[in-house]
Write a structure and sequence with these properties.
By secondary structure, the chain is of the alpha/beta class. 32% of the residues lie in helices and 29% in strands. It is built from seven helices and ten strands. The strands form two sheets. The chain has a seven-stranded mixed β-sheet, with helices on both faces. The N and C termini lie far apart (33 Å). The relative contact order is 0.15.
Length: 208
């Protein structure tokens, strides 16, 4: 609930870049021609827009109503859906996806929501489908700031919730759901800007 409220108030007040993230550009090297992609937590649509322009089939979803408005305005059609992955799984009656893409979203989820994310990702992916994750590591310096909610959860100004992720635990959860880890890294330098250089986790896993 923290994050939905935060982002619903954030998007109307801020003009965000439409340039693709470094993670989206990185992920492109692991995609096959015409792959279908479910983007979970699509934000303002910057990466969905990139994948669409590269001729991939993209389905953005986001829990923030304002984010969905932003995406649909960008695409000039109602492509994005205002829902989480659990609701999407029960709503979606079409084909399974080749890929699920999630950037800067897992650290906005509670541990329970993370379990749902992995579980429903498995259900929505084709066999040999890939899941792409980029999120904040528990080694990120930002963990030393904010209001402490739990050992790995913090609350920042404006009800901005973050949960800092343990890479080994995340990989174990993926493996438990029959994913094979094909790439993983944990470091700074992956997504820098003028304000920060966060310590991030990148994981690519394939459904067995």
């Amino acid at each position: 609930m923290y994050e939905k409220n935060y982002w619903d108030s954030y998007y109307p007040k801020h003009k965000c870049t439409l340039e693709p993230s470094s993670f989206a550009v990185f992920v492109k090297e692991y995609l096959n021609s015409n792959d279908s992609i479910l983007e979970v937590g699509a934000g303002n649509g910057r990466d969905s827009n990139f994948f669409l322009k590269e001729n991939y089939r993209i389905q953005p979803i986001d829990k923030s109503k304002e984010a969905v408005i932003s995406i649909n305005t960008l695409f000039k059609k109602d492509i994005a859906l205002n829902m989480d992955i659990r609701k999407f799984h029960f709503h979606w009656k079409k084909q399974l996806f080749d890929c699920i893409y999630s950037r800067f979203v897992l650290h906005a989820m509670s541990d329970y929501e993370e379990e749902d994310f992995i579980n429903y990702s498995s259900k929505l992916l084709k066999d040999k489908g890939k899941i792409f994750i980029e999120c904040r590591s528990e080694k990120d310096d930002l963990k030393n700031k904010g209001i402490i909610l739990s050992p790995n959860e913090r609350l920042y100004e404006g009800n901005h919730y973050r949960r800092f992720i343990n890479k080994e635990q995340l990989m174990k959860k993926l493996i438990h759901k029959n994913f094979n880890i094909i790439y993983s890294i944990e470091c700074t330098g992956l997504s820098t800007n003028d304000c920060e250089d966060p310590c991030l986790i990148r994981i690519i896993a394939e459904k067995a």
